[in-house]
Amino acid sequence: MPHAFIPRRAPRRALVLGTALVLGLLADGHATASPEAGERGHYRGQCRQLTKQIDHYENTVLPMAYQRRNAAWANATRAQIERLWHRRADLCPAYGKDRTLLRRLAEQTRRFNQMLAAAGRAAAAFFTGGAAGGL
């Protein structure tokens, strides 16, 4: 029984965006030790199993947690999805490339935010005549 605030199937873009935001917060790269994720080899069976688990948590468990309005369960489920996603990226080259791309996007986002902050400080200094501190 679908609800108005929960899509029946969670879109992958939401997962990718959420992961990008998390990776943006953890920009120093705690997720893996190698610069190119997915270099360890081909684990086809495990890749399939991890993909099925991720789909199950995204499409079954997480909507149930939202439906029952259980925030702790939803947070734990999202954390489990993230752990499975990183495990899959470690084992599967195709998914590792996605994570590498997300890291690059997170780094670009971090640099853009730093540029915006510097521009804001410069604008504050300009419009207040230097009273705001500025650069």
For this entry, give a set of tags.
135 residues, mainly alpha, single chain
Can you characterise this structure?
The chain is mainly α. It has one domain (12-26, 36-127). The chain is built from 4 helices and no strands. The chain has helices spanning 12-25, 44-67, 71-91, 93-127. The N and C termini lie far apart (56 Å). Mean pLDDT is 75; it is low at 28-39.
List the topology elements.
Layout: H1 12-25, H2 44-67, H3 71-91, H4 93-127
Helix pairs in contact: 1-4, 2-3, 3-4
> Helix tally?
4
Average pLDDT confidence is 75
Strand content: under 5%
Total beta strand runs: 0
Helix content range: 55-70%
**Most strands sheet:** none
What overall geometry do the principal axes of the alpha carbons give?
elongated
**Unreliable parts:** 28-39
N- to C-terminal separation?
56 Å
Q: Would you tell me the structural class of the helices and strands? A: mainly alpha
Order of helices and strands: HHHH
What radius of gyration results from the CA coordinates?
20 Å
Counted up, domains total 1
